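FAQ
Q: What does a multi-component entry look like?
A: The components come first, one per line:
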Amino acid sequence: KAGVTQTPRYLIKTRGQQVTLSCSPISGHRSVSWYQQTPGQGLQFLFEYFSETQRNKGNFPGRFSGRQFSNSRSEMNVSTLELGDSALYLCASSRDSPNEKLFFGSGTQLSVL
Amino acid sequence: GQQLNQSPQSMFIQEGEDVSMNCTSSSIFNTWLWYKQDPGEGPVLLIALYKAGELTSNGRLTAQFGITRKDSFLNISASIPSDVGIYFCAGPRNSGNTPLVFGKGTRLSVIA
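Then the predicted structure of the entire assembly, as tokens:
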């Protein structure tokens, strides 16, 4: 069974640009959560999608958005990038609920210059 | 609110030594999850605990669900260099379909 797949693995952008990250969950998993991780920080919850609907949202500005498709694949978008957006963005999937065992992808390392 | 406090924040140990870390909360948790994150990778689930007092092993790793349900412990025996990484505890909030609560992690360094 394939794990959670995130693309791209690395990304370099400049301030003001926008970026789209992609996540394919484990087959059969319907809940997809996104986290931001910066050096020395823990896992900051961004949002969670289930059945193409955003079910939970963390405390991030509106520049951070996401969506989920009918096949449970998810994308997150960050517009008007800031230097502080440089981070490892992690996607995690679970069968039905974000408070079950989460399975993480390897992440997308975003650097904003 | 439901927060998880992990200690120590970081630790340096000699290869071959045993390691102990813990996770505490002021609230009761019904499930405890322990994850390990290698540098530049996503966290990987190590052990899941579902019952107060439960003791579960995964190779050299042993985790326990505290009797009070407000804490959990992770022990690593005979550490090796590949044990390096960040260890996170996590648990579900009481209300349904809300995100897991994560601790801030314990960073483990192993000196060969």
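Q: Is there any commentary attached?
A: Sometimes. For this entry: Chain B touches chain A through 22 residues (CB under 8 Å).
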